[in-house]
Amino acid sequence: MSLLNRKTAELVPYTPGEQPKGEKYIKINTNENPYPPSPKALEAAVKAVCEDLKLYPDPDMSRFIDAIAGFENVPRECIMAGNGSDELLAFSFSAFFEPQAQPVLFPDVTYSFYPVYCREYRVNYKEIPLDDNFNINPQDYSIPNGGIIIANPNAPTGIALGINDIRRLAKAAGGVLIIDEAYAAFGGETSKGLLEELDNILIVKTLSKSHSLAGMRAGYCIGSPELIDGIKRVKNSFNSYTMDRVAIECAAAALEDKEYFRCNTECIINTRNRVSARLREMGFLVLPSSANFIFISLPGTDGERLAGYYRENRILVRHLKSERIREWLRVSIGTDADMDEFLRVSCEFMVNR
Q1: Residue pLDDT, tens place only, 151-200
Q2: In the chain, fewer beta carbons within 10 Å around the N or the C end?
Q3: Would you say domain 39-256 falls under CATH 3.30.2000.10?
Q4: 139 vs 59, 97, 158, CA distance in Å?
Q5: Contact 44, 253 (CB under 8 A)
Q6: pTM confidence score
Q7: What are phi and psi of 250, to 5 degrees?
Q8: What is the CATH number of domain 17-36+259-352?
């Protein structure tokens, strides 16, 4: 007899990308930033490792909240911080979506954690198919629903929606529209300008990609004071100290180093555009990306076989096996040296296939 309750026994957890242990690969499979964090962020982290660790951290994360307010130019009461954007997404599902009610809507090809959250919180959901070019069509969401969540730019496609389409989605939402802007720093258009116009929008962000802090776990969300209060209620019913002292100081310093952020982001965008153009010249299909990754396929080639070839050549890419995208690979943008090797192996595959 299982000691798990039925809900837990039925859960199908999210599967993260591979994190190799010991072996040396070019690792472009998990959308990490290839460049180190800001030196100011590292300095702040080192300074925070002191005897104050014997004390609980600030439950309001004030130092980080102040830095977010300055970075985003939004009021403090419209901000909530947390232990990565995934935690804040989980809190949001709990706060805004009713169990066993109208379905929450999201694309059929998107961040695969969304259905996991729905199953965890017993939220009905409906996947809305992307069109044949992997675009989100806002008119498809004008059906009864209990809320909408999208990633913008979308993952794993990298395709971004414009502000007018976001506005249409917000008006179609039967509750809250959650916009997951994990990759917006790399070319997507942030929706925060709509917050003064619409009170049902929550924007969720992470420092994992944009600020090279995937290993630190720091994220935040922006929305109306009512939505932020709802997330705080859930957070403080779960764990009043979600971010540790080191993460708070490190994340704040990273946001304050705006020039370092700008230079790194610009470099990744330039590398992405160069690699995309070269792959297209070789014959690959490459979706237009506004993220720090590209979504590619090679006509007539099995996606799993291609991913295996890269792995044999010490390169890790992400092969997602769901039906619509099993012939596609998601390739994170690494350093120029990493991507030059990726292009060399890609060309070699074309010659030998």
Answers
A1: 999 999 999 999 999 999 999 999 999 999 999 999 989 999 999 999 99
A2: N
A3: no
A4: 41, 21, 20
A5: yes
A6: 0.95
A7: -65, -45
A8: 3.90.1150.10
